[in-house]
Specification:
alpha/beta, 7-stranded parallel beta sheet, 19% strand, 11 helices, 245 residues
């Protein structure tokens, strides 16, 4: 019997937080995890080391997703080294950074996600999977109230999800499935820390609605979506039962 072909998985924003947790949880001898990051080489290398310690294979790549040349180089390197890409996890997001310009959130959370998906599709084979990671405030934007501090992210990530769903006919033609994983505010993340400082009432309201997901719990749901993907186009919800009522 021939050994199983190694699976290649690219995770953006994987040097810390949820992305890092997903990367390590996916560690397996038959997988190569590409840890994509924008800065902080040391953190990314630590994640790659943790994957190897857990029995998997890993590499790191620095790429600003808003830089088309950097994205092209990243995907070219993956194709050259591994021949194909099996899973793309669109985890990187932003827009709340202190010095971010007004258009940055939309460039990253919509435009860069669409461009990365378009370029990555050329390396993906039938049976491939793209997973878009979002939040309930973004996924339900326009239907549920959003803390004003989070508004740039909510608007742009909702736009990103809509744009990616608009590509589904193209994805299906390649035999690539698309899944969204949406979570309530996640304890221990940068966004949660920011909101606890700037709008503690909003955080208290979310806590009153029910237990908030942890980084580990949210990452586990993302890993499950990769290892046991459901229906094409499905949205998997983590926490926030009041959003679903």
């Amino acid at each position: 019997m021939n050994p199983p072909e190694r699976q290649t998985i690219l995770i953006t924003g994987a040097s810390r937080g949820i992305g890092a947790e997903v990367a390590v949880r996916l560690a397996d001898r038959d997988r190569h995890i590409v840890v994509s990051f924008r800065e902080k080489d040391r953190r990314a290398n630590d994640v790659a080391d943790a994957i190897r310690t857990a029995g998997g294979q890993a590499s790191t790549v620095r790429a600003d997703l808003c830089d088309g040349l950097a994205v092209e180089a990243m995907l070219g390197d993956i194709s050259q080294r591994h021949g194909h890409l099996d899973v793309l996890v669109l985890n990187a997001s932003g827009g709340l950074e202190r010095h971010a310009d007004p258009g940055y959130a939309m460039r990253l959370n919509r435009d860069a996600q669409v461009e990365l998906t378009r370029r990555a599709l050329a390396s993906m084979r039938p049976g491939g999977l793209i997973v878009f990671i979002t939040s309930h405030p973004a996924h339900f934007y326009g239907r549920k109230e959003v803390p004003v501090e989070y508004l740039p992210v909510a608007v742009s990530k909702r736009a990103g999800e809509d744009a990616l769903r608009g590509m589904q006919d193209t994805l299906r033609a390649k035999g690539v499935r698309f899944v969204v994983v949406s979570g309530d505010l996640v304890d221990g993340t940068f966004v949660m820390r920011l909101l606890e400082r700037s709008n503690p009432d909003a955080v208290a309201m979310r806590r009153a609605a029910g237990p908030l997901p942890t980084v580990a719990g949210f990452a586990a749901a993302i890993v499950d979506a990769i290892e046991s993907p459901g229906q094409d186009g499905q949205t998997i919800y983590v926490g926030g039962p009041d959003y679903l009522s």
